[in-house]
Prior knowledge:
- The structure holds 3 protein chains of 3 kinds.
- By secondary structure, chain A is mostly helical.
- In chain A, about 70% of the residues lie in helices and about 0% in strands.
- Chain A has a domain at about 65-295.
- Chain A has helices at about 20-30, 30-50, 55-65, 65-80, 90-105, 110-135, 140-160, 170-180, 185-205, 205-215, 220-225, 230-255, 265-275, 285-305, 315-345, and strands at about 180, 185.
- Chain A has a two-stranded antiparallel ribbon with strand order 1-2.
Amino acid sequence: MSQSLEHVGVNEPNGGSTKTPLILKVVRFREFAILFALIVVFVATSLKNTSFASTASVQGLLAGPAVIILIAIGETLVIITRNVDLTVGSVLGLSAYLVGDLYVHYPHTPVIIALLFGVVVGSACGVVTGAIVAYARVPSLAVTLGLLYMIRGIDAVIVNAVQINSNNLPGGFINVGANNFLGIPILMWIAIVVVAVVGYFMRNFRAAREMYAIGSNPEAALLAGIPIQRRIFSAFVVSGALAGLAGALWLAEFATVGSTAGTGYELDAVAAAVVGGVAIFGGSGTVLGAALGALFLNTINQALVAAGVSSFWDLAVAGLLLVLAIAFDRYLIVRSERVLRVEGRQRGRH
Amino acid sequence: MEDIKDAEIGEPLIDLEPRGGLVKLVRWESGLVIVLIACIVCGTLTFKYFFTPETFFFSGLDIGEIAMMALPMTFIIITGEIDLSVASILGLSASTLGYLFLHGWNIWPAMIVCLLVGALAGAFNGFLITRLGLPSIAVTIGTLSLYRGIASIILGTNTAVGFPQWTLKLSLPIGRSEIAYDFAIFVVMSIVFAVVLHLTSFGRSLYAIGLQKETAFFSGIRVNRIKFRLYVLSGLVCAFAGILYTYQEASANNSTGLGLELNVVAIALLGGVSIFGGRGTIVGVVLAACILAVLTTWLTDIDVSGEVQNIIVGGLLLLSVLVPNARDGFGRIRAAVHRRASESS
Amino acid sequence: MNDKSQNHLTGDAVSEEDGERMADASQSTSSLKPLIVLEHATKVFGAVRALNDVTIELFQGEAHALLGENGAGKSTLVKILAGVYQPDGGSIYLDGTRVHLSSPAAARDAGISVIYQEPTLFPDLTVAENIFMGRQILKSGRRVNRSEMVKRADEVFEQLGVNIEASRVARGLSVADQQIVEIAKSISFNAKVIVMDEPTAALTEVEVERLFAVVKTLKSQGAAILYVSHRLHEVFEICQRVTILRDGAFVKTSAIEDTDIDDVIRSMVGRDVVAMTSAGNDTSGENVLEVERLTREGVFTDISFNVKAGEIVALAGLVGAGRTEVARGIFGIDRVDAGSVKVNGKILKNASPVAAMNAGVGFVPEDRRQQGLVMEMAIDRNVALASLRSLSRFGFIRKASERKMAYDWSTRLSLKYGRLSNTAMTLSGGNQQKVVLAKWLSRRPQLLIIDEPTRGIDIGTKSEVHRLLVELVNQGVAVLMISSELPEVLQISDRVLVLCEGRLIDEFSRADANETAIMRAATGFSRQKQS
């Protein structure tokens, strides 16, 4: 099968090994797919129940997932490096309480300081987690599981000391959780800003690209001389910081906190990321996708309620969506591998 | 196929201390025994009546269902997978039981249906993981929600109560001993699981799969079929645990067992089961369950809150993964030093 | 063939100067000093001398072939250049200065780059990012300068004369393209020495031509290329000089015009023709294995052969010929797409190792550490691993029987071990292989497939294994042996089947078989064809 080079070369469009195969183009636009699904769900539900599309309802749809969006973003960074952070829920709870406690002792704290304080609390937890996973080289599932217990325990101990409710919180702070700016809830604005900032970072900064490399091919990352430990450590610190911020906002939103704040949120964060296209074994996915995943899952929940489906279907639907998302991702990979093998077969060996 | 990266003639063996299977296991279990004795001693020191049958009884009651679920979880982790949907299957089974009971079913056929539901749930997990090849950690997070959701759908906000009198006996001691039925069931189960794991060919194949899946496959071990069956087994046991849990609580609602999955994994890891697969014993898991039961009983007795207890459990879990890794880390460093020394140019 | 006035890819005419430059570079290099010299290199692993006083020089602008049979020492030499191994004796000179390549990073910094058979790219990142990972081009504030990286990558690709979209993601690239990306990586490193290991193993004709054009460009830019390959006709097309190793020792280096394929083969094989020991295997038995038109698309095609009871049939061929794949297909590790396998007349179920085992087939795999043994399991448990069912009653393993099996077979095979409860990791290579053999022989198979029976094993154990195989067939077992060691093949096999590129090229009986003939067939020249 000898071919004259002038007629068929590896550069030809249909010879195509050098252009991105169509199937991978689909994968790259996962974000659009979710957005599309989101719109479909919204429209369909609004048709059934017009109040779903009311301003108040939409604002609720935007404010509701803001906290989960934040922790999903942090979780995304960790997952990209082929790890998992199960502490985020506990860190959120701890941070929520400590911020409230701050207000109890210093009622005139400016809102910004309170939020920053939450970030600091979360980062401290992230530093501990990151140090153990990255430098002691312990599997992140086990470590973050143990830390989940510990942090929740510490949180519960502290919480029992003082009860915090809206009396303790200044109006300014509560407004962050309740008000809108230009029609969009402030909570959502914060989430948008964080998505934009972190998203920009992930796309453009060297440290972030190296995180992707670590998850994509750890051996090659080692060979390429990437500072793997440092990057993994940073991922956990960011995850902690965002969980801390989420905790502060959670407090602003609910204006009261007990010892169960944030329980189970870690699994929500992972689910949002996976639905949003973040591969569970790392190396690919975007924070925008994770944010949209969180938004989508939350919207589905609310849509079910608005459409008159009992809220008991929430969990089942969410679980099913996650399974479908994983199965679909796997299907894409298997399919693209098969496409390659077929191409190889067609070219044949001489 | 040979790759120039592969070893050629006489590539040196790894220089680590051979971690013989039996030797390493004994070390971990001995450690656990020591910790258990330490807990009992502490308990006895603070309370004269600690080491009594009553304590034994209540501790046994506490272990109950979580420890039961840790048994098939151990098998699954040994093969290198995980099942995070266990508590949801427990809840699903409890909901099913409640629902059927509320609709006038006789308790015995109802229990059988529950077991079937559990097996089905496990089979679905197994299908996704072995047939579709999906990663077990991600998939079982999904089925965790799915099954809990189905449990909610089935039972709604109802709480089922009024189960037959004899079911209440399960929380009571057998005859004149201080052993709860619950605990006795767990003991029997752990003996069965231990026997299967350590004495049967099935158990042996689990270790082979966990250590080197490829070699196991090359030796004629049906890796996928075995993993599938493990997930079905897990579903069955969790469903059974759900039934027992319901009887113990004397009620069923849609949040039965919420959040327990991490406890189950924690017991397995504490028991010396390596998250990487290929290592672990039932003895270790039983010891870990006992330690937790005794520890929490003691801590409750000295008025340590449940929350602080969590801190301690979390800390123990952390230690249980850090310690072996520290040892491996030293081994790796030692090996690297040896290698460098023997290759100096 | 070596058309110097036309760019192979675009068909454009090349300017006179370019043409001359290329011609110069590919001709005499003797007037220049060598770019890199590996002098008197020796490398010992335990009792085995992988390399023994080997010297090789590479000049700028030349493609230098490194030839030798499997096990001749090529990969050890490459690993020394790559900084993976440090030589036990000898030294390396780069541009006249002595260097120590203490690690792969050091080798890379010294300008040496190795393109392995399996490229290690980051599938989720773009081609440009892959090329520059670890040394990204940065904008202000440690931000990655995408456009600049794409631009530079495009420049490199243009330099090489290839057309790959630098901003596309690496997942989905063909092996050929991945290789080009690896080469681009090397260039962006300013690699001066580029080692290519079996670069054309997975390429189509068209891609091979493209690669050759790239190699020519590299040469014209002054790089030195070490071309490790078994494809002799390619070597003669693209290389200027050739160095041949045999059994870890240097045989010769010569200019390509001073030698030819037969001469090269003779040097590679070189020892006195090994006389076939008249083992007198009784090969009159029935067909145990009948393979008919077995095909696995893209891997091997239309393989048909038989193995009778009492005979040893060897599958010979070069790396990548598909021998192991055929064995895996027969045993059921891999699914086959067409054809059939019959054992004792009954058709074997596709893709089922269990079915093969039940039919009496045993398989000693090529990679004993990853596929043959569970390294962290005890010796006796490894021996028992394929016999779990027969050793169990009602599912319970009879430990006494297990221990006895392990003990009996260890004695029979003269296994040297500390305790049977020690892990397989504690054994030497030869003894590890004995454990794998024990595992399968204890099943009393009727057909034993054994892949590279004595790779990485000391001489003493080698002959033990050979004796064992002969004993086996004398008891009526059929043996299908894959081996890259021709002396071994000639010594004990009754027939030799030679594969090349996934096809059965030739079959030799005892009478016809000799090393040269087999090697010729392995490089694609069947006896019917003209050379």
